[in-house]
Amino acid sequence: MKIKRVLQGSPAYKAGIKKGDSIIRINNYPILDKLSLIYAEKSGKLNIEYVHNGKKQNITIRKRIDTQLGIEVEDIIRRCVNKCIFCFERQLPEEARPELRLRDDDYTLSYATGSYITLTNLTDYDRKRIVSERFSPLYLSIHATDNNVRKYLLGNEKAPDILKEIEYFTSNGIEFHTQFVICPDINDGKIIEKSISDLEKFFPHILSISIVPVGLTRFRDKLPYIKPVSRGEARDLISMVNNYQNYFKKKYGKRKIYASDELFIIAGERIPVNAYYEDYPQYDNGVGLIRAYMEEIKRIKMWKNRNAGKKLLLITGFAFKEYLNDYAITLKEKFNCETDILPIKNNYFGSSVNVASLISFKDIIRGIKSIKNTFDLIVLPPKITNVKEEFIDNHQFCELKNMLKCDIIIGDESFKITTLRIIKE
Question: Which end of the chain is flanked by fewer CB atoms within 10 Å, N or C?
């Protein structure tokens, strides 16, 4: 692993390790990525094998156990070997941000950030490492426990038997949060019911199960046809989840399985109460986000009144508009902020894509030009740009600020933080 930074004054710095050196092993343990470095540097005595100016070097460093070695290594991401028929990265237009096409399937990222993996690219060493270093919980995309169905969905005839993989890891104490992306007529009905029953055998190591509808863009010309989840199918899936929740709650004391927010939107059904989501184990997977927002709005209504006196425009997708209405009323009643909501049609990906964070720069401009009102502040959805402030269609946030004659902010995932910014801006 190539070293990209050595912290001044650190044990590595004092030992003469330099930026650009490559670290090979610590205490005979291979350094393959950031997590292996974190795992290996916890000892007080480090026998380090590294490369400096093209030559292998060996050095021993003694330090406090709770002191870091003081080096940062370059990122190495394990890439996806699948060709999923529903993969979002394979449904992108040519001008989309290049980084979106980099498909990871990395168990270290799954452990560190909660990204979902398929376990299709593991070596024997990877399996042993996951167990020995206790990379748990991991986040696992299953889609189907029927191997033929799963191989078709993943576009990978070499995909290993998923139940054997789960059995190996759970028998060694590794836990999983799991998801099923539902493609109608492929992995719904008896396929999903059998899959859930198969997973029950691995409780309590299966911490949660989410049921998510497939997301389809208009860029699918070279991909197999997939039918979108209909209102009736969404209602059937929600009913199935409710039945399993009742069964699991009675037998194990926890609901275990949850329908995603988007399923309730497609079904036209009310978002469940707070108790439905228990401790929100799949929050970052779009399960319980809306309910969490609704609970936040309830708490904001208890704040002291304040006269911010602003005219606001909240931008969102069509799916989330109705859930912002209560927030707009709250901003008016509590903070004297006249608030309009502008739902943006997603022409970029297609009207079936309603996720607010996937609204493009061009669609925002088109939407704002369609209204004549002026505003003191425009609030964009959370995560609508990346860390470089680039929209999904590769335009910069600064371009938007330069084009519009008012202040613009990107909302936080917390309504509380967004509200504080609104009334203080």
Answer: C
Q: How many domains is the chain built from?
A: 3
Q: Are residues 30 and 119 in the same domain?
A: no
Domain that holds residue 15: 3-73
Q: What's the DSSP call for residue 156?
A: -
270: exposed, middle or buried (C-beta count within 10 Å: 0-12, 13-18, 19+)? exposed
Please name the residues in contact with 370: beta carbons below 8 A apart, sequence gap of 6 or more: none
Q: What CA–CA distances, in Å, run from 80 to 93, 106, 119, 197, 354?
A: 20, 8, 10, 27, 26
Q: Which two tokens stand for residue 102?
A: 């980099």
pLDDT tens digits, residue range 62-114?
998 888 899 988 877 889 999 999 999 899 988 888 888 888 999 999 998 89
At 121, list the tokens. 């690219």
CA distance 35 to 107: 10
pTM of the model: 0.86
Distance CA 76, CA 205 (A): 29
> Is residue 92 located within the same domain as residue 213?
yes
Residues 135 and 45 in one domain: no
